[in-house]
Amino acid sequence: MSTVMSNFSAWKKFLGDRVEAAKAMGISEDAIAKLAYEIGEFLDNKVDPKNEEQRVLKELWDIGDESERKTMARMMVKLAERNS
Fold first, then answer.
1. Which of 16, 27, 31, 64 is surrounded by the most beta carbons within 10 Å?
2. Is the pTM of this model over 0.90?
């Protein structure tokens, strides 16, 4: 898992695989986006960014309001889908 957290390409691939697995289980796009938002909140509060890309995402997350964070979570799901 440490490689996944420290390498942004590996992180996107990891997320993409999880999004595809969720879709295969019949989880809706809205539910996936909601979960992505909740994971973003957890990461923001509990995990120190491991690379520059994660630091940028954290800074954007920190300055965003709830609506912007939800949009960012949906965009991360789209990015993950593209990298699965």
1. 16
2. no
